[in-house]
């Protein structure tokens, strides 16, 4: 059992970062956006600020929290004996769950850019998208789509 703990721990930590973050890119379209018309507005980037997006976990936090609880409980079960062992197992499971959830949350953060764009009509909009390409203040861009389906692309 002691030999399986490092393998189980690495497995949980590896799988904890399995959120699908491709949809936050300006270069990736969802299936319902394909073969539909998109609005295009031209603007100039007024400001760019690095931010992070907390991606949703595909497992709803179960993998990090549940896996951490199992590993923490197994580790706690190796301490002491009798009722002390039971308390250590419970404490290990609780601590492992908290730590596993934190690891999963950190693994599901992606680097992004918050871009303030001044449109040609004088209005300002802000779009946050994955930082998978470089944008600079003063750069002319296309704002494609609107509302929840807007992305920024070079002009």
Outline the biggest β-sheet.
Answer: 5 strands, antiparallel
- Percent range for β-strand residues: 25-35%
| Shape label | elongated
Secondary-structure-based class equals alpha+beta
Break the fold down into its secondary structure elements and pairings.
Layout (H helix, E strand, L loop, with lengths): L3 H12 L24 E15 L7 H15 L5 H26 L1 E11 L4 E7 L9 E5 L6 E4 L1
Antiparallel strand pairs: 1-2, 1-4, 2-3, 4-5
Helix pairs in contact: 1-2, 2-3
What labels describe this entry?
3 helices, 5 strands, alpha+beta, about 160 residues, elongated
Detailed description of the structure:
The structure is a single chain. This protein has a five-stranded antiparallel β-sheet with strand order 3-2-1-4-5. The longest helix has 26 residues, at 82-107. It is an alpha+beta fold. The protein has helices spanning 4-15, 62-76, 82-107; strands at residues 40-54, 109-119, 124-130, 140-144, 151-154. It contains three helices and five strands; from the N terminus they run αβααββββ. Helix 1 (4-15) runs antiparallel to helix 2 (62-76) and helix 2 packs antiparallel against helix 3 (82-107). The chain is elongated, with a radius of gyration of 22 Å. Helices cover 34% and strands 27% of the residues.
